[in-house]
């Protein structure tokens, strides 16, 4: 079997959005699942709408998602000479011709065809004139049909009479989109094209170009689009659209890939897949034919599942990065080791890194900088609880070993001596340690903070 070479060919006119990223992921999986190659081509021929910023954003997003490509990135705009060379070959071998019909001529032809109940198209006026200048058109076959078996949609056949003698080179000398795509895919060795189904009408036209050049036609597949929960085309109002927005929201890249894969691909009713599993299981046979619906709640759930399973050391690094982006000063002062100890206490509940960073607040600030919630302080640190906190702090100070077990024993003894219930001191201690009324378990929190910070916080709270 020949090696699969797939590709992703975005136009750099905006950021990499969810739909594009999913197409990229499917193409990547297709190649990786078959031990093939995955190429990246930036289709930047529309000089007005293409920007360097968008190109960088696409490349960064792919890197972040882990969709590494093989070989050099190809920039379509650098290939105009090659595109024109192919157009000249098509003219030489009789598959293309010059046309000098004006726009008005063509409009009139179309109108006439419509009036006569035919499909509006160029009528071939210049086909056999042997002109040597003007726009260049492909000589489309006048009978038969052009068909292929779409990897997603199944067999697709188009009557050749339905197809126009499409323009390959415009009057300003620039090659057209369909021509450029075919030449680039061919030259890059691409034999498997998976793309959005907004391109499904281009495919028979592109096949005509392959055939005219005598080139092997790739396999094509077109994935249906993604809809919002209201079944309308996915747009900004349904949630964040660009991949990097999810990065900023603190999503893990593998969770994004997992969620995107499930938008249109399935393997039984399994929801969670590692990248390796996806690579192992992916096949275009299980790509859905109908549009998938974007569901932010489910996306959040998938991310939460990945947060729970992620390596705490990696999450600690990611938290430090996030913090540095938010507040460089706080990041410089934060103790990474304490944060790393806090991660396992937080990761069961955090929905995202941003969420986790918020919950990790008390482990980031040191005693002197900790923010105390005024209401919590007023409610729990009062004349009744202060002496209890003072005494328990003194006992902790005297502990030989400062561990969850010794702290638990110490508290049990304290409650017994004072004949009080844990709830009398639990919230006061929590507020003293974290400034808040919600935190992970107290003994775990104390252990993560360490004795020095634990005592310093109780002392600061007592002084409030
Ligand atoms: N550049 C096209 C787009 O961004 C994709 C072309 C293709 O995949 O063939 O929609």
TrEMBL record:
Sequence intervals crossing the membrane: none
Entry-linked SUPFAM superfamilies: An anticodon-binding domain of class I aminoacyl-tRNA synthetases, Nucleotidylyl transferase
Binding of ATP, residues: 236
Cofactor remark: Binds 1 zinc ion per subunit.
The keyword Ligase belongs to this UniProt entry's keyword annotation: yes
Reactions this protein catalyses: tRNA(Glu) + L-glutamate + ATP = L-glutamyl-tRNA(Glu) + AMP + diphosphate
Glutamyl/glutaminyl-tRNA synthetase class Ib catalytic domain sequence ranges: 3-301
Subcellular location: Cytoplasm
Keywords, comma-separated and alphabetical: Aminoacyl-tRNA synthetase, ATP-binding, Cytoplasm, Ligase, Metal-binding, Nucleotide-binding, Protein biosynthesis, Zinc
Oligomeric form and interacting partners: Monomer.
Identification of the protein by name: Glutamate--tRNA ligase
Organism per entry: Pseudodesulfovibrio cashew
Designated gene of the protein: gltX
């Amino acid at each position: 079997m020949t090696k699969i070479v797939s590709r992703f060919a975005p136009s750099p006119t905006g950021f990499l959005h969810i739909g594009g990223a999913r197409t990229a992921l499917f193409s990547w999986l297709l190649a990786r699942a078959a031990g093939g190659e995955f190429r990246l081509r930036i289709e930047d021929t529309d000089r007005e709408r293409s920007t360097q910023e968008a190109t960088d954003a696409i490349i960064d997003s792919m890197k972040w998602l882990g969709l590494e490509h093989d070989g050099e990135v190809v920039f379509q705009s650098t290939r105009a000479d090659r595109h024109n060379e192919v157009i000249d070959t098509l003219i030489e071998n009789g598959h293309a011709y010059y046309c000098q019909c004006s726009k008005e001529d063509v409009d009139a032809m179309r109108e006439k065809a419509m009036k006569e109940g035919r499909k509006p198209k160029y009528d071939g006026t210049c086909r056999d004139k042997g002109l040597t200048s003007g726009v260049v058109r492909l000589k489309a076959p006048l009978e038969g049909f052009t068909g292929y078996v779409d990897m997603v949609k199944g067999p697709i056949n188009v009557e050749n009479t339905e197809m126009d003698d499409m323009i390959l080179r415009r009057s300003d000398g620039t090659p057209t989109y369909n021509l450029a795509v075919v030449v680039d895919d061919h030259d890059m060795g691409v034999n498997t094209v998976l793309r959005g189904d907004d391109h499904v009408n281009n495919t028979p036209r592109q096949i005509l170009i392959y055939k005219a050049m005598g080139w092997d036609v790739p396999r094509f597949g077109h994935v249906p689009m993604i809809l919002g929960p209201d079944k309308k085309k996915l747009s900004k109002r349904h949630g964040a659209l660009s991949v990097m927005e999810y990065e900023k929201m603190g999503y893990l890249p593998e969770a994004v890939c997992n969620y995107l894969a499930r938008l249109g691909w399935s393997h039984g009713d399994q929801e969670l897949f590692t990248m390796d599993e996806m690579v192992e299981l992916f096949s275009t046979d299980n790509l859905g034919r109908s549009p998938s619906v974007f569901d932010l709640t489910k996306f959040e759930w998938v991310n939460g599942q990945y947060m729970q399973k992620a390596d705490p050391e990696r999450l600690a690094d990611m938290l430090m990065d996030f913090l540095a982006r938010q507040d460089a000063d706080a990041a410089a002062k934060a103790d990474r080791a304490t944060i790393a100890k806090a991660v396992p206490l937080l990761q069961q509940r955090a929905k995202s890194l941003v969420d986790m960073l918020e919950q990790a607040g008390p482990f980031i600030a040191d005693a002197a900088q900790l923010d105390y919630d005024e209401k919590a302080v007023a409610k729990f640190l009062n004349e009744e609880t202060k002496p209890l906190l003072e005494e328990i702090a003194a006992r902790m100070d005297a502990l030989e070993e400062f561990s969850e077990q010794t702290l638990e024993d110490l508290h049990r003894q304290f409650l017994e001596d004072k004949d009080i219930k844990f709830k009398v001191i639990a919230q006061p201690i929590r507020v003293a340690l974290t400034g808040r009324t919600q935190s992970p378990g107290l003994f775990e929190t104390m252990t993560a903070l360490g004795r020095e910070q634990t005592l310093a916080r109780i002392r600061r709270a007592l002084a409030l």
